[in-house]
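LOG
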Amino acid sequence: MTDIEIAQAAKLEPVVDIAAKLNISADELELYGKYKAKLPLSLIDEDKVKKSKLILVSAISPTPAGEGKTTTSIGLTMALNRIGKRTTVVLREPSLGPVFGIKGGATGGGYAQVIPMEDINLHFTGDFSAIEKAHNLLAALIDNNLQSKKHNLNIDPRTVTWKRVMDMNDRALRNVVLGLGGTTGGVPRESGFDITAASEVMAILCLSKDIEDLKEKLGNIFVGFTFDKKPIYARDLKAQGAMAALLKDAIKPNLVQTLEGNPAIIHGGPFANIAQGTNTVVATKMGMSLSDYVVTEAGFGFDLGGEKFLDIKCQYAGLKPAAVVLVATTRALKYHGGVPVKEVNNPNIGALKKGLENLEKHIENAKLFNLTPIVAINKFTHDTPEDMEAIIEMCKRHDVMAYEANVWAEGGNGAIELAKAVAEVADSNTKEFRPLYDWNTPVEHKISIIAGKIYGADGVDYQPKAKTALKRIDALGLGNLPICMAKTQKSLSDDPNLLGRPEDFIVTVRDIEIAAGAGFIIPITGEMMRMPGLPEEPSANNIDIDAEGNISGLF
């Protein structure tokens, strides 16, 4: 059966019954039909958050062969519940662009899914739409001010970097010219579109603790400069109130369920190669307020989502993970060992051992934070005992436990041993989580620490635009913000073609963007794609709906 067939065959429990498992009354829910609900922020209890165990799931560097972080996160959650641990999984929401493009959905796979799968992968509860509208409201206010004579802030349009966003892969919108059509059509200037998941508003929503905090962060969005070099923020345009009003429901986490009827909270969806790549602070704290254990996921490999989860999200939210799980597959390891993606199902122990260098580096990176990870081997039917033994032996050399996770085929029952190990580590953890760097150190030093220690680079080269940006950051007094690297997810380096564990390379920073609202600085390495395009054969070509409303083709 396909993923969607498995999901559609499942018997869903009413969301009020799922909420009851978390001791939430029906009166506290904001229902979106029978199987989805919004949760009020009043359910967050900081005292309970401190007692709950937070389990972070990350992975090796992503490959076209797939790693299965979401599938593993859901399967681990179901397994923890099976062994009597009251656990909630907290994940990001899918972005429509990849769903209709090349990636597909983001609700897990096989018998380790969150449901209703179609709703979550499509419009869900409208959070992305609200973020898109709030973002574009600020864009409209900026262009309106450029046109205005009465309230003109004297903004230099050449310094405005705020684009529009849309939650769809559409390469034709990457670069556009605005304001054509004469004097009433606005001020002509170059701009473009990003995908909604890349919006700073998305990043802000995911780091905000409540409506007031959200409003303040929205007001701090850096817009550009006036002609006399004065910085302009969203608050100067009086945008934050209306933007926050559009997000009044989007800030509330969404409650759904796993295939085995466990609570699942899905909220927020920033990409990890551009933004922080994790779900919202309020969703994580909501899960921790209501459960003894929370399993959450950080996007792409540990070098991106994992590092940002620990150095940005945990620092802002005051969170400390009790355990870290790194997901790997034999297919992905062979790919990192030089095998073409079409051949990764074939036996090749030599390539697998070569690819283990990538997993080895991610293990070392986790230990930099004073955290010893557990490796979850996401199992496929073609995996051999020799493959498994090679992975387990390498992990033993690093004093790391490794377990098979056959959750795609068996659901929670396929990760019982992994769940027992994770629970034991989380319950007995006495290590104090240690961030990689001090926010108050100079920007260049923070970038060098990430590039050198996490990526393994020999150094960092700053191109002219990046050097100018460093001076701008210093002049604006924003040098004490954390670093959110924009880097390819395909490699530990900034070159997507360097697989495995690259050596003898320099990270090139071509520009540095300011996300003053979200509260971080974004060094841009390589050609980062903020508006993806559709592939030659988009997933949209296979998605359909019949006369009874049954959707097919989602995966």
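LOG (cont.) second protein
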Amino acid sequence: MRGTKLQPVRSQRLFAAWLTLLVLCILQLPGAVRGTAAESEPFNEKRLALVVGISDYLTVPDLENTVRDGALIADTLRSLRFDVIEEYNLGLNGFRALLDRFEFEAETADVAIVYFAGHGVEVGGQNFLIPADSTAASRKEVAQTSVSLQDILGAVDKARQLRIVILDSCRNDPFARDGNLEIVTLDQPATVNGLAPPSPERGTLVAFAAKDGATALDGDGRNSPFALAISETLKSSDLEIGLAFRQVRDTVLKATNNFQEPHTYGSLSGEPYFLAGRKQAINTLEAKERKNAWSELEVDQEKQLAVLAGKGDIRALKGLAYMRLNPNEERYDPAAAVALLQKAADEGDPEAMFELARLYEQGIGVDQDIERALKLFHLSADKDFADAINDLGFLHFQGGLGVPRDPNKAMAYFARAADLRHPEAMFNFAALIDDGTVEGRDLDDAAAYLYQSLRTGNEQVLDLLSERPTMFKQGTRRALQKKLTERAFYDGAIDGQFGPQTQRGLRRAYGISE
């Protein structure tokens, strides 16, 4: 990605630091937490899951299988090397406290999954999961006594690679009248509870046990058909995660004689991911190599991807495009990749717009067209795709691609990208604030962005803060020590000196246990 070109902006001290990374500020999201065990564990990732099952309700009908379903999924995820937080029959306060704890822990996880089995209802276009002690007597009272889907999404949103929410909560509506069913929908205002939807490039998949407006079966045995399908499918070796949820859908349809059809909403990123099997090694590659790794899909899975692409599935279109952009593959065909990305872009996908912009900029698979590239960068940025926003910041600062040089616009773009948790943008924007070039920002702001950049798992950020802390002013370093202290990562002096104790605090904040 282009978010690597800050040399005209930075002072000499940062310029020298960037040169040590081959190209100025070559910071690329590593995608995996690599601690001290990375060399000995080929699939070293931090996987975190929260499993909640509720069967015993205070005022609404009890459910039969939900606790057993939760236990089944918890055991399945543990077998896949997840650290599982498992709780049952939680009340509202306990549920909210658990989500707060999970959200903090998930910041340093590569993968975060939440599974909920219990009653869930829709009220005014929003989804709510009902805790055991809810006293709601009608739909109107649900919002005040339940956990919203937005709360759940917020709990997984900062995980580094993969974010999945699984809701087995479409059973009979406890507040139904005249045979109404529970209704689920993702048509929610972006400002509910002050949380924004997950950034599109970060990708969060929400899997419902049944399509919106439909009900799910509890099953005739000890577990629901949906829980059984999830458990069986996620353990499948070398099955790409997006195709896994397609297989869950097919399995449940077959088990219920086409009565119940699970459905997924949202989207995963354009990089393949594997929960089991040898192909887990792909998960730890850098972003570009991971996209190339679509070529390593099994033949039957590639055929499934092609079928889905033929039906307009955006992620499938991108996966096939990345296969054709891999120069090491016989199927290398950048013109075909352009066509596939164009279809995804036409459907409004910001990642496809960004990738297509880069191809037009470089003239790969298509005649070079700078005007078209810039238009696509802007379209992607308008959808809050942080890579595109960060690129536009550099173009406006440097005057690249014929864009008039405008430092004020550049700063606005850098700020937007940083606020969307773009790792490189957060670090670079912190450096700009530290230099005093960003009006209205102080050293506390610089430290806040450094802390958040560290939490995203960017190894180069950790290396720079550990090895070259004096590139930042002492006031920024002290403010960062305060941030580490607030989260119990550091308990030493707030002196701006990054000695062994501060170094340990930085590693702990990054996610390395010692």
